[in-house]
Specification:
Elements: H1 3-23, E1 31-35, E2 38-41, H2 42-59, H3 69-95, H4 101-108, H5 121-140, H6 149-170, E3 173-175
Antiparallel strand pairs: 1-2, 1-3
Helix pairs in contact: 2-3, 3-5, 4-5
């Protein structure tokens, strides 16, 4: 390749990078996984890891070093949690179910009437996912009946398990290299 061609390729590549940065608001936050058409970004994953790092610190326990295989395994497991949350959120949208911010905040702070907020995004998303799961469960198990309470619970739980299994089977999930959760 001639110097002129190398210079043209370098300019085009730099222009593409600059255009990508401009389109993304001036910084890069690449996806680490794709769930359906939704991206889970590196920043989202790092915020989740930071949540657990802080929890470990609060409990006085160690957290794996970022260069260790244990850390990568934990990070990728946490990515699996984010993927599961995205799957549930997509399923809820398809079923026409939603959760409002006020409902989440009320569940998080029952005595505040939903007026207080929290800075811990992971905790907020955990509560939101729990509320979505409850609404999906109610929707999926709506027509199930049984003569006993134990049988009813068993039938409803089995129906929900079938629904979640089908959801996980049918949802297109693609992990970026180095981020797939292990078995």
């Amino acid at each position: 390749m001639t110097r002129t061609r190398l210079a043209v390729v370098a300019v085009l590549a730099a222009g593409g990078i600059a255009a990508g940065l401009l389109l993304s608001g001036g910084h890069s936050d690449p996806p680490v996984a794709h769930v359906g058409g939704e991206k889970i970004t590196r920043d989202e994953l790092e915020a989740t890891v930071d949540h657990f790092r802080q929890e470990a610190k609060n409990e006085g326990t160690s957290f794996p070093d970022e260069n260790s295989a244990r850390f990568r395994s934990l990070r990728n497991h946490l990515l699996g949690v984010l993927v599961y949350r995205a799957e549930l959120a997509q399923a809820a949208r398809r079923l026409g179910l939603r959760v409002t911010n006020i409902q989440v905040l009320r569940r998080m702070n029952p005595s505040s009437g939903g007026e207080e907020s929290t800075t811990d995004r992971f905790q907020y998303e955990t509560v939101k996912t729990q509320l979505l799961y409850e609404r999906i469960y109610a929707n999926v198990t709506r027509g199930i009946s049984s003569p006993t309470t134990a049988e009813l619970a068993e039938r409803k739980n089995a129906a929900m398990k079938r629904y979640i299994d089908r959801l996980e089977r049918e949802t297109q999930v693609r992990y970026e290299p180095g981020y797939a959760p292990g078995p």
